[in-house]
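Exercise 7. Given the components listed, write out the predicted structure of the assembled complex. Treat all entries as one system.
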Amino acid sequence: MSETSTAALIHDVRWEIDYRVRLGRAWSRFMRGLRDRKLLASTCDHCDRTYLPPQSYCEACYEPITRWQECEPVGTLRTATIVYQGFDGGPQAPYAVGAIEIDGTHSLLMHFVGGVDLSDVDAARKALRGGVRVRAVWADERTAAITDIAHFAVAPAQP
Amino acid sequence: MSSTPVPPDGDAAADGSTTDPVAEPVTIQGHWDFGYTYFAGASASRFFNELRLNQRIMGTHCPTCDRVLVPARGFCDACYVEIDEWREVGTEGTLDSFTILTTSFPGLPEPPTVVGYVTLDGASTALLNAVHGIDLHDFDEAGALLLTQPRVRVVFSDKCEGRITDFAFELVAADA
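Answer.
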């Protein structure tokens, strides 16, 4: 006879990993642009889709992309989540993360969303609804990293 | 306009940037160091306990679509219905897909190693685990053999602890 155990299985796990990510052509240029306070996007010659973060291949046409634009660092928040459970090495919770469609692009950039009081959950949810306008806030120290943008600030509500 | 053209790729120097993104890519240094407690959930707990106590591979049968999901899951991912009908599946199966790992990773066995997706006899879904006993002196030769989707069998380790490493796959034909 076999024995059946439905006892909860729990493992303690520890991750300790050093790594390096070598960015490709498009992301390297994108990151260096951020260092110079420039938001660079790539545009497909065939379908005119503009990608931010940029891509070296069009995901719709599968064609290589070499055309670039500099975008105004403003866009529309399409969706967001509020993170209440922090993560080792990450920002202090609570913080908000959003998917941002930069004006003139056809893609979404994930980044921190700031300028919203997260202590009032209901008010924060309203402030972070899809469709609100956001603007990049540049970090003072920039090192060609995604955090060269400190966060995207929600524009103050129109009176 | 909200965007202004900048020089195309290959002409990056023209916009004042003297750095060629291909010749000098941006490199990000990363360091992860964290601990956590993993709770397998009700179905996976029983799946792993079955490995430890009975050395058998268990799936759950979905009455709606008649598939046997392996490893066992508490919900059918096609029908979204709760499933709790447990079935033991075979200890032989077909290697559907594989990869040969050539880079070391903390906590994993020294490369080169093979991991593969195997659909065990009686199962409707594939199970990922190590494939042992493959001659990896010549990767092309090893790949050609594994691409034939050979039959494999489950081999349990001597000491089962309720982990996926309690078993591995090996070729059935190896000793035929």
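Discussion: The longest strand of chain B covers residues 27-39. Chain B touches chain A through 47 residues (CB under 8 Å).
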